[in-house]
Amino acid sequence: MAYRTITAEQLTPRIGAIVSGIDLTAPLSAGQVADLHQAIADHQVIFFRNQPLDPVSLKRLGLHFGNLQAHALKGLPDHPEVRKLHADETSKHVAGEEWHSDMTCATKPPMGSILYLHTLPTAGGDTAFSSMYAAYDALSDRMKAYLEGLTATHDGRLAFGRFDPTGSYPVAVHPVIRVHPVTGRKALFVNKGFTSHINELPPAESEAVLDFLYRHVENAYFQCRFKWEQHSVAFWDNRCTQHLAIWDYFPQVRSGFRVQIEDPDLAAAA
């Protein structure tokens, strides 16, 4: 995996790399953008150190990969595409504290998300990522055949209803097995955070199959775990990964900003 303008240090054989040799706070060249596109395709999630971004530079970075997508929850007043992620001693919940892919309740889930953290606890607050390529590949041929052609309903109320029970949240239907539009690889596309049921199965069977798949994607052999430092950045491909924000640092502060990138290739992914 050779790149012209960056270096990528692989974290695990299946997922994750730390990218160096680039300044994300500055405008990027066409060559740098091309290398980052290739790196995200190669590694599914890429990480950067010492990148002191702000909402403006974070949006500029995200726009190299597609239009920015507003989140179901509110963004910043001056930058509605940017969502503040903040946890402290008053928090009752934190975003992403169970395995999920971002906003799969949307008709067009994001291609990816870029998260920048500027304030961190003294210990803890890691994020774990799991490869849905690896999860799919590890299934038996019989299970792959069984899941092929099934669809699942993804309901935003499952993830966001606890924050605002009176809110109106999107609901969408997606294939259980998704073909990645760039790599052509198959990936599992159900997650505990948003998926309510498999549409073609009776309720008890749907529940049993989803419970198996949710436990399956948590296999440590499919994962990498990122230890954040101040001004670190994570950029993940939402189409082939799940992630978990580990809330083990209460009551300390963990804070930053995130953008989501629209998926320009959704029509080719089904």
TrEMBL record:
Biological processes, Gene Ontology terms: sulfur compound metabolic process
InterPro entries attached to this UniProt entry: AtsK-like (IPR051323), TauD-like_sf (IPR042098), TauD/TfdA-like (IPR003819)
GO molecular function, one term: metal ion binding
Keyword terms: Dioxygenase, Iron, Metal-binding, Oxidoreductase
Domain TauD/TfdA-like: 9-255
Keyword Transit peptide among UniProt keywords: no
GO CC term (a single one): cytoplasm
Pfam families listed in its UniProt record: TauD
Record bears the keyword Metal-binding: yes
PANTHER family: ALPHA-KETOGLUTARATE-DEPENDENT SULFONATE DIOXYGENASE
Family, similarity comment: Belongs to the TfdA dioxygenase family.
Name of the protein in question: Taurine dioxygenase
UniProt source species: Sphingomonas sanxanigenens DSM 19645 = NX02
